[in-house]
Amino acid sequence: MHRQGLQAKQSHAQSMYPDPEASAAQVYSSVTGEQPNNSYDATTYDREDTADHDFLRDTGGNFEQDEQDLSDADSDYLDLQNDIAKFKDSVLKFRATQRGQDDASQEGPAEGHPPRRGRGRRGRGVNRGRGNIRGTIRGPNKAAEPTGDIKLRLSMAYAAFMNQKYEEARDVLEEIIRINAETHEAWMLLASIFKELGDTDNTLKAMIIASSLRPKDVSAWLHCVDIALEKSIEDRAGYVRSAHHCYSSAIRANPKSIEARMGKASLHLEEGNTGRAMSGFEMVLKLSPHNLEVLRRLAEACIEHGTPEKAKTLYQESIKYYRERFNNVDPPFGWSDLNVYVELLACSEQYHDAIRELKDTSRWLLGRETEKFWSQTDDDREWDSDDVRRISCADYVVGAFHLSTYGPGMPLELRVKLGLYRLYVGHVEEAMIHFQYLKAFSETDTIPDYADLFREVADALNQAAFHKQALDFYEPIQKVPELAVASACVAMGSCYLRVGIPEKAEACFKNAIQLEADNFEARVQLAKFYEGLNQQERAFEYVNEAISLKRPPPIRLHRQQTDVDDISSSLEQPTKMPRKPRQRSHLKGHKRSRSAEWKTEEAYRSENLQRHYTTMVVEHDKMKSGDESSSRSWMMSASHLIDDFRGCKTFYPWDKYVHFMGYSGSDLVQAQATLDTDLAAMANRISQSLGAEHPDSSKVPATGIPTDYRGMPFSTWLDIFLEYAVCLARSGSFRESYEICEAAKDAIVFYQSREDMFLIHVCWCTCALIASDEETCVTVARFFMKDYQFTTDSYRMFGALNRLCQSPTSWYNSGPTQKYMLRQIKAMDFSLTDRSNQGKYFAEKGSYSAQDQHGQAIVNVDMDVSLLMLYGFILYSGTSYAYALNYFYRAYALDSSSSIVNLSIGLAYLHLSLKRQADNRQHIISQGLLFMFRYYNNRKQSERILERQEAHYNIARAYHMLGLTNLAISYYIFVLSEADQAGSMLEENMTTDAAYNIQSIYAATGNYPLARAVAEKWLVL
């Protein structure tokens, strides 16, 4: 098939990066802004079906009309017209001679069905088309020879290009493409012009189209890749897609192209697609086995992917291959390849194998493969620089090989790796011997060449607790200023502390801060250092700096300003708000000016907040009644007040367990960040120590703790938060409503109040129910079970929330929920078990989350039936009926007269009997019906008609489920008779359900008159 030519109707703009699948028309339109002529498009006719479409008629055009628009001087066009006319005559004569042979040889396809076309070879003996007995050639048809007119214009374009008249050459080429977009030479020359003009984007577009016209030219596709990847780093990512397409096209042109497959795999590795990169490199290895360059790239991909075993196996095969074929000559396999191989073994922590392979392969590379006896030695004497230890080996012959093939022959990098592997397996003495070779370079000018080796050895020794030896390798690096880095300074300072040289440790930590101004670890170490020296003020300074570095950037909330009236005199005075500290000015007048400016801004902000609160008060009642306009006004004003509250950093400290002490107390920097426990504990110790030593430190007494913000009580602020969250949920902004609930929960003034936290989570559940978000319902409901553990209502609330949530039970019976409930049951059972049996039957102590007013864990003294039933229901909803029965029976042992317990056991048995794995259905059904009738006999004695209806209906539904419809009908009729007796007294009943089931049974059995009678009496509204 010919590639698609120009599409006349396609005029949309091209994207910044060339689309690999773009047609010639798309690129031509983006370059010239014109629509090309399709008269020479090879796709306008089918060469296998010339009888059905007279392409000559379309090709000829209307020459009479064209001649009126021509001048006598336009001889080129007239010559072209004559050539086309001659071509028409010759084709018509040829068709006339061939038509008789075609009709005699074979019939054509059925009318209305064109000949089938497709890629692939034709079947033997099957002729397709008219008279064509040859097989179809794979790939596109060969491009037609350019016409004389095209050749003339090409020569003009080439001449203009050689004379550097690029715009003129471009105009000619655009005209050629307009006439025939499949002119390969035009696109190539156009690409050259764009390249000379420095337009890489259009160069790539033109080259891709040119390559598409000759898709079997692999070198052309690879040239497109070179253009695509020549872009700068910031633009490279955008051209990778085009490079992928070009590599794929090159591979289709020649599946055995190693360069194309290697480039595509390398591109995948660059993008982080290690899986595809590995597959690509493995395919290259099939084409070029034991290719060391490919092996190195495959090893890199395998290490990043976390599967070094695959590359390790291929390396072992290649080493075996090269050792067999390059025994007495220099092998292509070199030291760098050995380095990669042993690194693969080390990545898998196979250090013993890495040591063995490193020594054995190095011996082969140095020409001493015959000395296999060295493999029997446990140490590395073979690689010493002298024979002092080697001569103790009985098989060693002095002088058999040159001394350079032993210790001096191993590259220093591999020797360091050998030492590291020895250190990792605990062979410290051997490791130190190898490290001494590196240490010998510490006094030379070659330290920059081996800086990475020094750092690697130092870090390994430091991690292995050989701090003194580690300093021998840290110190040479720090002597060279350009090699000094903050992380090495911190590590070296830690080593100095371990060896008892605190002065140098302090200098190293400070040097790290000088090298890296925002270094966190150095400040933590200095804080610990000064705390140990009892220099609390200096320790406090560094711990505050460390916490400042960990502090998240402040969120600056934009607040719109509106005009409303003043509401409260308490809000007239501006409240001091946290703000970004400004650089201290040495000009007092400027300082006073900035202070006055800030007061003016704060007064304006307070005035606007007052007006927003007034709007909220005025619109509150209408908002609660559902007025949309009032709701929008109230929500807009509430959002401004909430943003202001959330902007007060005092309400959101890093430690929620710190009680709110007021606004004017000492503002510790660590109250602004989320830190690890050790740093938080250290900050707390230091601050307490400073408070004890400095009696003048400002601290608000407990009796003076504020209970309001901007003149409004915290309870009012909480109401604003919760009502705003509900309004957001009702308006469909579910995620934003969750964020408001979370912001209220995180505020320290609410977090310490048990009642406030209860209200916040109730509101959170309400928003989740409005959104029918079962996941959030389950997550938030855990709060009640955690803070009110072993409280029956908390478990009932969990079940009620999931019942009210209109969504599938995927989260209700999910794995995390089941595990959480099981932990609750284990905690309940743990406290009720004798101490002698607690260690015997429980692997760990129960998890008690509820606490009393004194902070002591609340331990249950009895079993909770609701918890047992809830876990049973979770298992029941997941069709684990046999497991659910275990917990239903535990609840039955505690309350055998409970209707819900008996009903649950009965239904679990009935459902279990319907499962394929049921062994004795009759027995299981009998057990189920036993409990069902215990439930029934208990429930039908109730004075409430609804409960008696429920009992009749559940028994009827159980029989109906078992297929015993004759028994089910009588109980359904009991439901209807109860409704007849009650009349209109019932607010809720099961009459409709029972009537529908009865008429369904009658209809299924063919008793349509009875079904109609039941429907007319009970189902007609």
From TrEMBL:
<dbReference type="InterPro" id="IPR011990">
    <property type="entry name" value="TPR-like_helical_dom_sf"/>
</dbReference>
<feature type="compositionally biased region" description="Polar residues">
    <location>
        <begin position="26"/>
        <end position="42"/>
    </location>
</feature>
<keyword id="KW-0472">Membrane</keyword>
<dbReference type="InterPro" id="IPR019734">
    <property type="entry name" value="TPR_rpt"/>
</dbReference>
<dbReference type="GO" id="GO:0000127">
    <property type="term" value="C:transcription factor TFIIIC complex"/>
</dbReference>
<feature type="repeat" description="TPR">
    <location>
        <begin position="258"/>
        <end position="291"/>
    </location>
</feature>
<feature type="region of interest" description="Disordered">
    <location>
        <begin position="554"/>
        <end position="602"/>
    </location>
</feature>
<dbReference type="Pfam" id="PF13432">
    <property type="entry name" value="TPR_16"/>
</dbReference>
<keyword id="KW-0802">TPR repeat</keyword>
<feature type="compositionally biased region" description="Basic residues">
    <location>
        <begin position="115"/>
        <end position="127"/>
    </location>
</feature>
<dbReference type="Pfam" id="PF13181">
    <property type="entry name" value="TPR_8"/>
</dbReference>
<dbReference type="GO" id="GO:0006383">
    <property type="term" value="P:transcription by RNA polymerase III"/>
</dbReference>
<feature type="compositionally biased region" description="Low complexity">
    <location>
        <begin position="129"/>
        <end position="139"/>
    </location>
</feature>
<feature type="region of interest" description="Disordered">
    <location>
        <begin position="1"/>
        <end position="69"/>
    </location>
</feature>
<feature type="compositionally biased region" description="Basic and acidic residues">
    <location>
        <begin position="44"/>
        <end position="57"/>
    </location>
</feature>
<dbReference type="InterPro" id="IPR039340">
    <property type="entry name" value="Tfc4/TFIIIC-102/Sfc4"/>
</dbReference>
<keyword id="KW-0812">Transmembrane</keyword>
<feature type="compositionally biased region" description="Basic residues">
    <location>
        <begin position="577"/>
        <end position="593"/>
    </location>
</feature>
<feature type="transmembrane region" description="Helical">
    <location>
        <begin position="868"/>
        <end position="889"/>
    </location>
</feature>
<dbReference type="Pfam" id="PF14559">
    <property type="entry name" value="TPR_19"/>
</dbReference>
<feature type="region of interest" description="Disordered">
    <location>
        <begin position="97"/>
        <end position="144"/>
    </location>
</feature>
<protein>
    <recommendedName>
        <fullName>TPR-like protein</fullName>
    </recommendedName>
</protein>
<keyword id="KW-1133">Transmembrane helix</keyword>
<feature type="repeat" description="TPR">
    <location>
        <begin position="486"/>
        <end position="519"/>
    </location>
</feature>
